[in-house]
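Figure 2 data, in text form.
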Amino acid sequence: MNRSYSFAPPAATLRQRAGRVLAPVALLLALATSAYAQDGSFRHEVLMRGQILEADAGALVVCVGEADGAQVGQVLDVVRHKRIARGPKAAGPRFRREPVGQVRITELFDTHYAQAQVVTGKPKVNDTVELIR
């Protein structure tokens, strides 16, 4: 008796079939997203960000320096983060940004720190300073 058996390969599982379809779609989406980011339409507008570490009679020490690209004479916006009063189950952000004023860098004394003076407003310790494009 001469019996020949023919085995067909097992049918592809649902996971394998989905992978064959979704992998090219994901690749296409990633390429489209990176092309959109490169054309300049999507970019982060903050060039430099730090914090006020010390405030003494209008003279400030800020945590931005040469390593961050800080230069003497630059004017930085000052922002204070305020907690929003809301219920514990409410959706959305729990903080808001409140513009406080501006400071000017007067001296770079370290790669990470600078002396600044108040230009406008009343900045306090722990406020955020940032250079916007």
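Caption note: Confidence is low (pLDDT under 50) at residues 35-44.
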